Amino acid sequence: MKVEKSIILFFILFSFCLVAFAPLPNNNSNYNAAIVLKVIQDVKHKKPQTSWLTTKPSTQLETNDQLRTGEKSVAVVRFVDGSSLRVREKTIITIFADKRERGLIKNTKIDVGKMRFDVEKQQDDDEFIITTPTAVATIRGTSGLVNVLEDGQTILTVETGIVDVKALFGTQQSTSVEAGRTSIINRDGNISVNQANEQQLNEVRNSLKSNEKFIRVITPQGTFRVYYLDFE
Amino acid sequence: MGKSSPLFFFLLFVFSQLGAQQEFLNQPEVRDVFENQPIRVSIDVSSEYEVQQAFLYYRTFGKVELSVIDMQIQGNTISAVIPADYVLFPYLEYYIKVLTTKGQVLNFPFKAPETGNYFRVNVKKREQVDERIIILSPDLTEPILKDEFFLAISLLKTTNKVKKEYTRVWINDEEVTSLLIFSGDLIILPQNKYNNLNIGSNVLKIVLYDSSGKPVSISEFQFNKLSEAPRQVITRPKFKYNGTVKLESNYESMRVGNFNFNRGYASFESEYGGLTSRLNIYMTNEEKRTLQPQNRFLLSLEYDFLKLYLGDHYPVYPSLIMSGKRLRGVTGKVEFGIFNIQSSYGEITRKIEGELLQLYSRDSVVLGSNVIPIDSSKFGQPFARVNLGTFQRKLFAIRPYFGRGENFQLGFTYLHSKDEPGSIQLGARPKENVVVGSDLTIGIDNQRVLFKAQGAFSLINNDISIGNFTDAIIDSLFGENKPFGGNPTFIKRIRDVGKNFITINQFITPLNPKGLSTLAADAFLSVNYFGNLFKVSYVYKGNEYNSFGQNFLRSDIKGFQVLDRIGLFENRVFLSVSFERLNDNLQKTKIATTTFKNLETSVSFYLRKNLPNMTFSYSNFSVNNDINPITTDSIRLNYYLNDKTHQFSISSNYDLRLQTLHRLFLNIITSKKRDYTHKNLSAQFLLVNFSVQNFWTKKFSTFAGTTISESELSNREFKYYSINLGTRTSLLNEKLKTTFSINPYLGDLKRTILDFSSQYFLRNNFSLNLNVRYLFNQKPIKNESILNFFAQYEF
Hints:
By secondary structure, chain A is mostly beta strands. Chain A is built from two helices and 17 strands. Chain A is 12% helix and 52% strand. In chain A, strand 12 and strand 13 (174-178) form a beta hairpin. The radius of gyration of chain B is 29 Å and the shape is globular.
């Protein structure tokens, strides 16, 4: 009986120690992984349990938050490691982030639209991933543009650095895309990599621009401002 | 009369004390000061005094010798910056000396040179840890528009040592921590919460702390703000500009009269391509021909490796040769890295004509240092007693140097400065000065091992009005059976070569360079490993060393200093010990040799966040010379020095978080100087400061403090106590900011000061400011008031 009591007491103490000294789980759902730096025109965001809210500069984005841009709209989002996304018009993205001891894993899901990425040098536990309906791209550095068409086809142009791409369908091909090249991943899981043409390179360059300009039009009825983005 | 005289002198003393305390209108602002960051000191002198020159004397921990800076004078505001190299843990002390145009000498703190009661600034320690702070917003590479500003800081990459929620942030020296939102790794200052950004350059300072509240990292970032208009300018990278215009008017009703003065200040900065230009103009109606320039201007141009400064500026050369001296002229600097060169030319003293007091004929002339020969065709007589004027003094300096200075730098400096004898009519003894020197820096392992040395040799001619030696004079003075002996031919050769650099005559110093009387040199070696800083330094300054670019070096001194500072218990406790020994009379030109010994120790505790940080320090200064106190020689006895000073201080600060933040400061300094000579210059003082700042809401804070000051000099006591209560509020959506405080003084100094200041923003870049001070003085001194109004526009 005495032995049983001792064993029970031991297990109680052991359980207590396990609970007391076990590392607390990371509650990543509340981790502010990114912040919206700039908003042009119509940008909205939502949490899984909320409806779409108007996005303003300094809006913080947690993991699972979604952000969408309307027509002629742009949002600039910066992750806490300094990496940034320029979300172009008519685009929907979802932010995922996993805080680790020595870094941050960032996964941005883009359902449709265009998004430029500028990634800081990834260290230790850092990872920067972009997920599209047809592919997963691991950005090893440092900038480029991803364009997801309505049918889910992904066009990835790398401006600088190198990106590893893996198709999600078919034979799940994978390859590396280097600077100055464009990769197209279709719904069948086929990946093609070619030299980027002038139009694609221009599009990447223009995606960097996120300044809004205006023209002031003075009429007898009043003064109007016509806003436009600086590359248009 | 026998009884009334002491009473009269006592009253005179008390009133002189009262007057002395009112010479300065404010105390220098005390802010968090960290190691190796420059300290800006600014103080307002009552306008009843016309400031001619002002000096800041300061000393770092462990040093007896005071360094001096020529303070900048803008009207009655005097200011100076103590260089970062001198701001060392655990504290720094200074006092300010002001010379007025009427020959008065004012000191802040009162009688500081005599009592040793210097103004103390506690310097916080920072570890050499490079914490990586990521600035998410604003973009540091591009200017922002006024409405766009919000601050987002990421501490994702900082080490575990950093307690993120203890982080404190300043923008342009204004602490904004109370406005911040802390969210995990993110720290955010939301949009429209802070409206005090400068148009143009802004400085963001972030201090990270560990869990004990000890600062572990200080980082500074710069960003630019544009005014509203140039949305187009932001996309036009070729030309950027910004500026500030400030117009100020002052009215002061003081016990000795009414004064009013107006000032205007404008600054303009532009960038075109890689060329950055800055123009600063300061104008005041206090400009007078009898003073050194009050109106100041400066144009600076910087392009890649080229820098050019035109106007009133303070060129920096090795400190033995030129530092802290205003030059009206031009300085150019070309920095290629391996080879660099800097040169300056201009006027360091403006001519001020003397004043004719009395004319003398050749027969009636009397001797006197202010009796000079004058132009009889102009003044009617050949001699006059005058108030001596000031010659225009010009200066040229050049320094070629090799290496950037991180690991290696070797420089050579030549300085020539000369009074223009013809610049005024009523002056005497124009001077000329040449200094040559070299400096060396060697840094190893990111300057953890650092060696710096500099040396300079000076020549000064104390009267160049008679020109160079003529052959006849040399023949009459040098040669066999002549006063100086030597070879006259050799002396003539020296004159012919030397006169290209400096006027050669009998007033040149040194006449005999073998005694090294005009040599100055200093060197230090520091080793900083394993949290232990060890530094040993040596200084030698001959008794006749003189540089017109650095008038305030203490000459005739040599000695060494040893300093050791160690961090213990994971840097929760810091111990500092320093010993310095100096002596004078290097060329045996004084009656006695004086030895100065200084032992300073301090221990600082940064234990836990919920315990206050504390620093205890003890200093022991002793001064004595080799005169025997029982000598019967009354002249020697008069020069006898023997005193010892013991100083003990406690300083503490504590952030108490009770619903809201309450910041507490306590400073206690006690000092006792015992003079063992017959002069009885013993002195002692006790200073206690306690203050608390309460941040009730973001828009409302209060502050309260008390000061106890008790000093005694040669058995004469002076005690006063003061209380300071005030509020700061922000109203009308932060368009109106007001501060009100009341500050009664009790004891030997009786007065009450009411301060009110208000700042109203008509537009984000246009503000009106009103500052009012009313002083209730003890009768019969009449009450005084000061009204200051200024408008500031930024573009």
